[in-house]
């Protein structure tokens, strides 16, 4: 009898222990599945398409690193009868949110309203500001222009360390198509563009500039002039080589876009220039001053930045626009050759 009781107690103890293990494992697994393994607090814009299935939503949440298990997410959605309450639209989710928090956001939060805005390659800071006003993200250009002064940003980004005192972020605001929330601040817009620049012009590309003895500010200055001069993509490295060759010989760059930059006014930021304009004294007038101008004159494309980092190997010192309307250029080594090209292309 005693032996039977001892056996019964052992069996009971084993069953209790097994139950405890099952419950503990279940709770641990649920906790594991409830939270993602991503860094906590990083915002992710997540779009739910109209009539999108829970299976599709779960798969994309997993791809974004927001959940560990699509199966667990689908189970939680169906157990809570949330599958018919998920709303279509854009939502801001955060890495590290629990599955329950994600479901609650997708079923109870108002979708965010966003504005898409395109900044063209070769636009200057003022044109960016005007575009932001046009799409309704800011009320005046000055809001953006004032926020884009370099002093307040230099410490936040390693690639801004060569930014001269008093300089703006001209040249560093990567031209691209962006989407912003309607309540985005000018500072948030700038941070997004600087982050994009950091991705698109990565440290290894910037290191190639250093290998040539150039800092990033000098590269972007040449790239911005190339952007405004080049029409045919294949000419970008050649045009960059002309400017570097002139710098090496202490010749003025004599780049028309630098004159346009300081002559530009609202409504016409890149005006046709005259001989009188070329004679004006201004720090950006590369007809009147040798060396680099103080900084970029626009925000250049990646192609122009790459051309400024990897210019063609030429001896050219001059170029003139072709007279056929193609936008291409004829290049020359000597001034005499340059004059002949002008005569041939434009009749004197």
Question: What is the strand and helix layout of this fold?
Answer:
Layout: H1 2-34, E1 43-48, H2 54-63, H3 70-79, E2 89-94, H4 99-108, E3 114-118, H5 125-134, H6 141-147, E4 177-181, H7 186-200, H8 203-211, H9 216-229, H10 236-248, H11 256-263, H12 275-278, H13 302-309, E5 318-321, E6 329-332, H14 335-346
Antiparallel strand pairs: 1-2, 3-4, 5-6
Helix pairs in contact: 2-3, 5-6, 9-10, 9-13, 10-13
Short descriptors:
348 residues; mainly alpha; Dna Ligase, domain 1; 3 domains; two-stranded antiparallel sheet; elongated
Structure notes:
The protein folds into 3 domains: 43-108, Endolytic murein transglycosylase (Dna Ligase, domain 1, 2-Layer Sandwich), CATH 3.30.1490.480; 115-200, no CATH class; 213-346, no CATH class. The strands form 3 sheets. It has a two-stranded antiparallel sheet with strand order 1-2. The chain has a two-stranded antiparallel ribbon with strand order 3-4. A two-stranded antiparallel sheet has the order 5-6. The longest helix is centred in the N-terminal third of the chain and has 33 residues, at 2-34. It has helices at 2-34, 54-63, 70-79, 99-108, 125-134, 141-147, 186-200, 203-211, 216-229, 236-248, 256-263, 275-278, 302-309, 335-346, and strands spanning 43-48, 89-94, 114-118, 177-181, 318-321, 329-332. Helix 2 (54-63) crosses helix 3, helix 5 packs across helix 6 and helix 9 (216-229) packs across helix 10 (236-248). With 348 residues, it is mainly alpha-helical.
């Amino acid at each position: 009898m005693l032996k039977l009781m001892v056996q019964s107690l052992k069996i009971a103890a084993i069953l209790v222990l097994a139950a405890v293990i099952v419950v503990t494992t279940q709770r641990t697994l649920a906790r594991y599945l409830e939270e993602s393994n991503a860094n906590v607090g990083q915002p992710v814009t997540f779009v739910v398409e109209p009539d999108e299935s829970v299976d599709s939503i779960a798969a994309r949440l997993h791809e974004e690193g927001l959940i560990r298990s699509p199966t667990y997410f689908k189970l939680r959605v169906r157990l809570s009868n949330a599958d018919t309450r998920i709303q279509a639209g854009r939502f801001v989710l955060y890495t590290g949110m629990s599955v329950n928090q994600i479901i609650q956001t997708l079923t109870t939060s108002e979708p965010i309203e966003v504005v898409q805005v395109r900044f063209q390659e070769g636009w200057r800071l003022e044109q960016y500001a005007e575009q932001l006003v046009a799409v309704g993200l800011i009320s005046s250009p000055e809001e953006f222009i004032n926020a884009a002064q370099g002093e307040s940003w230099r410490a936040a980004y390693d690639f801004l360390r060569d930014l001269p005192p008093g300089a703006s972020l001209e040249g560093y605001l990567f031209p691209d198509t962006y989407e912003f929330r309607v309540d985005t601040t000018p500072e948030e817009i700038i941070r997004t563009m600087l982050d994009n620049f950091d991705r698109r012009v990565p440290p290894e590309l910037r290191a190639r500039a250093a290998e040539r003895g150039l800092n990033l500010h000098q590269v972007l200055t040449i790239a911005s002039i190339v952007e405004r001069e080049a029409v045919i993509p294949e000419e970008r490295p050649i045009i960059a080589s002309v400017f570097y060759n002139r710098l090496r010989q202490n010749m003025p760059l004599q780049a028309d876009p630098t004159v346009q930059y300081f002559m530009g006014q609202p409504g016409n930021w890149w005006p046709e220039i005259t001989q009188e304009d070329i004679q004006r004294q201004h720090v950006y007038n590369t007809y009147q001053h040798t060396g680099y101008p103080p900084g970029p004159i626009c925000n250049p494309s990646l192609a122009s930045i790459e051309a400024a980092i990897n210019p063609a190997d030429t001896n050219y010192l001059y170029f003139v626009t072709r007279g056929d309307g193609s936008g291409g250029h004829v290049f020359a080594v000597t001034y005499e050759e340059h004059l002949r090209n002008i005569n041939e292309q434009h009749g004197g």
